Amino acid sequence: MSKEEDFLTKEEEQEIIEAILVAEKNTSGEIRVHLEKTTNLDPYDRALEVFNELKMDATQLKNGVLIYMAVEDKTFVICGDQGINEVVQNNFWDSTKDVMVAHFKNGNFKQGLIDGILRAGEELKKHFPWSEDDTNELSNEISKG
User: Are 142 and 33 in contact (CB under 8 A)?
Assistant: First the structure.
């Protein structure tokens, strides 16, 4: 089994997917989580690659958010698309990372991810509220690579 598959239990993965559903319920924004063992690239550069590979750059309102984790490297990146980055406060992603890191330091990766997802969802809801013609443009499943 690879490191990213051991990282979360199936139950924890399901709870994270549920958090994505809750976070996306009142917004047109899209949130994804991607786990992989390690990366040879700068983590932010790799997150941008994954962002594009998952077609997160193709959302209609450019309001996708990716939480990328390289498990073995003990690093993660929150990557927002142009639409969301233009409207959030300058320190929003850093403050979200801080909330997540507090959980990660205690070994509670599931809760760190859930809190990051829910914070992103609240911010997306402020700037990109849900409307009747919204469709879920991207999968809510955790991707692995």
Answer: yes
